Amino acid sequence: MIKLRLPGWARLPRQPMLRHLLFGALGALFFYLLSNSLSSFNNFQLGEVAVYAIAIAGLSVLTGVNGQISLGQGAFLAVGAYTIGELEVHQSINLVFQLLIAVAVSAAVGFIIAVPATRLRGPYLAGMTLLLALALPFLSDKYSSFFGGDQGLITLPPDAPGSIDPQKWLTWIQLLCALIVLVLLGNLLSSRFGRSFRAVRDNEVAASLAGVHVARTKVIAFVISAACAGLSGALLVLSTGVVNTGEFPLSLSIYILAGMVLGGAGTLTGAWWGAILVVYLPNQWSQSLANAFHANHLVGANLAVIVFGAVLIIVMLLAPAGVQGGLRWLGHRLVTVSTVTKLGSNISVALQDQPASKQDRGGPDSETAATSVD
Amino acid sequence: MRLFWNITLGGVAEGMIFASVALGLVLIFRATNVINFAQGAMAMLTTFIAFSVFGKGVGYWPAFVVALACGLFLGGLVQLVLIRPVQNKPPLNAVIVTFGLLILLEGLAGAVWGNSNRGFPAAFSQSGLVIGHTAIAFSHFDIFIVVAVLVLVVLVAALFRFTTLGLRMRAAAFAPEAARLLGVKVSWLLTLGWSFAAVAGALAGLLVAPTSVFSPTFMDLILVYAFTAAVIGGLDSPVGAVIGGLVTGLALAYVGGYLGGALEPIGALVMLIVVLMIRPEGLFARPTARRV
């Protein structure tokens, strides 16, 4: 594939680690400026976008890169959230340690689910995670003295140093966590682990013949996604201030899945698109949409769920690569078109471009594409 | 001891309901290798349609028939419009589509009928039978549940065993290429399979609704219990689905009866984990070799 020739200083670093750190730093600068210009309520929502981006990115790694699916990410958000709640009730420790413990606990729960489900091909993980999301709220009913019953547990937002607005401080913490997680996941995907995730997705038998431990790889991917969801839940309850089962209905899992599918399964940047939808659609857009069409209150109350269901179906049927896939395709086209006009030679571009763009998309047809061109 | 028998009887009735939903899941999985996570939501929709028809004052049985007919239509429609386009894509796409359908149907039902809990009429009395002088926790309606599901199971078995249509459907499921070469219209039989599975689901919806709260999400737990049942029976065995349904129904009844109803879903999760650890292919599945 022909690349635009940029001068050396303007090119992205070739080391994935440096590249991701650069993106992370740019993102941090962008969000710092953005949060300074926003009101307290908008900062609250910006923080929520960051929180959901973490959960969606984790699911995106599991589904888009490793080819497994979880229908119950909300359950792991609940695990992380309740961990924070319990920690705040029983002792006061540093927020960083609280978050790390929440991540560890949800990763452990993810491990328990993953080990039996990933031994088999098929829909077992999907069914088990769905069951988990439906079952966990009952646990808090049963042991209401520990989990706080219907009222749930109270969480306090972290203290802001100096004269910083507490809401802005919390938003910064949430954004920082999101950027750290995305940089870490980006590095992970360009490492040995990322390659074995993709190998297992594309062909389990071929992957195991190439020396990849298939079951272990699947468990690792699932544990990573559960840990991301746990961190997301932990950060979420810091801003909502209360942990109860009403915060984690099945629809939360569906929102996260729909956000992931819309953003583009397997892309980390796409997680932001999905997170924006998850935050703004149920709270604001659905209401204004319902008002615009003079719909009755029943439609208004269910509109978000209807839209998310429709998003899952329509994106899967028409554009499985999601928004980020569409943007990437558009970017490829723009680059290709500009190089074509530059070189004035259609044929060489067409010949060289074809296998590269197919391989970029990955998937099982990349091998056949490469061989047929050879 | 009476508590034990009452729990057992309740478990049998529950188990028959799980069996009918699990049967629908297995019929679809066997034919198209897709777990239909919308099986419960489709049943919910047909039950709500029956609820509206019943509200017109036409009586129970016309509403019952309308629900089953809607199931037949809805199952075929879903397969034609939503499943066929993802049939040859990675299996995850079908999972996401059926899951999207689950939430879409629940949202639509909530928008039309509201999200509040309602009551659904039962065909027969729901008060416990009296044997001798002791009342037991098994009603005329529970008898109806058991009989209706047994009739369904016998009809499905007869269809597959004794009719040309059933033979064609089995051929289409197990060897689609060969069946196609022999003149079987495979794709239409897959559509028909989804229709039959949706009828089994519609029946389950009508049987569950009077015994629980009736709201757009009332089939969610039934679906995951039926999934547990289907996995226990082995995902591609109809006999296994029925036996798995009974096993799941009984086990959850004992968990609910002795440890508290709130632990039933956790019990199902534990069962699922244990079965997948000990006998991952289920109790009745044929051993399969994976093709490379």
Can you characterise this structure?
The complex is a heterodimer of chains A (374) and B (292). Chain A has 374 residues and is mainly alpha-helical. Chain A has a domain at 13-250 and 263-273: ABC transporter involved in vitamin B12 uptake, BtuC (Orthogonal Bundle), CATH 1.10.3470. Chain A contains 16 helices and 2 strands. In chain A, strands 1-2 form a two-stranded antiparallel sheet. In chain A, helix 4 (95-117) packs antiparallel against helix 10. Chain A is globular, with a radius of gyration of 22 Å. The two termini of chain A are 15 Å apart. The model of chain A is unreliable at 343-374 (pLDDT under 50). With 292 residues, chain B is mainly α. Chain B has a domain at 20-218. Chain B contains 11 helices and 2 strands. Chain B has a two-stranded antiparallel sheet. In chain B, a hairpin with a 2-residue loop joins strand 1 (128-131) and strand 2 (134-139). The longest helix of chain B is centred in the first third of the chain and has 31 residues, at 2-32. The radius of gyration of chain B is 19 Å and the shape is globular. The model of chain B has no long low-confidence stretch (mean pLDDT 87). Classes of the chains: A mainly alpha (374), B mainly alpha (292). The interface between A and B is large, with 52 and 55 residues.
How many H/I helices of chain B? 11
Q: Biggest sheet of chain B: strands side by side, in what order? A: 1-2
Calculate the mean pLDDT score of chain A and round it. 81
Identify the CATH class of the domain at 13-250 and 263-273 in chain A: Mainly Alpha
Instruction: Report the C-alpha radius of gyration of chain B, rounded.
Output: 19 Å
Strand content of chain A: under 5%
Strand order of the largest sheet of chain A: 1-2
From the N-terminal CA to the C-terminal CA of chain A, the straight-line distance is: 15 Å
Low-confidence stretches of chain A: 343-374
Low confidence ranges of chain B: none
Structural class of chain B: mainly alpha
Order of helices and strands of chain B: HHHHEEHHHHHHH
Assembly level: heterodimer
Shape of chain B: globular
